[in-house]
Amino acid sequence: MTFKRVEDFDELDTESIYWVAVSGVPKRFVHEAERIDGSNYSGECFGVCIQHDKKTGEFAVIEDTPGHSLYYVDNLGYRHWLGYRLSGQKLEKIIGRIRMLIGEECGEK
After folding, report:
1. Cys bridge to 49: 62, 84, 91, 96, which one at CB 3.0-4.6 A?
2. Strand, helix or coil at 78?
3. d(CA 108, CA 80)
4. Do 29 and 82 touch, CB atoms closer than 8 A?
5. Cα–Cα distance measured from residue 84 to residue 46, given in angstroms and rounded to the nearest whole number
6. How far apart are CA 89 and CA 99, in angstroms?
7. How far is CA 90 from CA 17, 20, 37, 85, 105, in A?
8. What φ, ψ does residue 31 adopt, rounded to 5°?
9. Pairing of strands 15-23, 46-53
10. Burial grade of 11 (CB within 10 A; 0-12, 13-18, 19 or more)
11. pLDDT tens digits for the chain (109 residues)?
12. Which has the closest alpha carbon to 95: 12, 20, 24, 43?
């Protein structure tokens, strides 16, 4: 699974939430998304959600329920959280990309 882009983010008082588009998800989730969306399936609709604590600087993956950190957005815009736990290594790669974006954003000010 690889980082594609930050699709959206929520800037809150104490944290930022990053909605990250990903690609290269395991086939079992592709099949699940195809089951959900049928002929409207799109491989461009997978993502993960990452929280950044502004005070501590720490990042964490957000799960809808324990062990459900990957989502698929169907053709009606509903998020379906899938039973996938983001590994530490993949999380670190995504966090690295988010940190680069934060650095770029800060450099522009």
Report:
1. 62
2. coil
3. 35
4. yes
5. 12
6. 15
7. 17, 13, 26, 10, 23
8. -65, -40
9. antiparallel
10. exposed
11. 889 999 999 999 999 999 999 999 999 999 999 999 999 999 999 999 999 999 999 999 999 999 999 999 999 999 999 999 988 898 999 999 998 887 765 554 4
12. 20
- Pair of tokens at residue 81: 């959280």
In 10 A of CB 95, how many CB atoms?
19
Main-chain dihedrals φ then ψ at residue 13, nearest 5 degrees: -60, -50
Contact 38, 77 (CB under 8 A): no
Dist. CA 64–CA 68, nearest whole Å = 6
Identity of residue 82: L
The whole-model pTM stands at 0.87
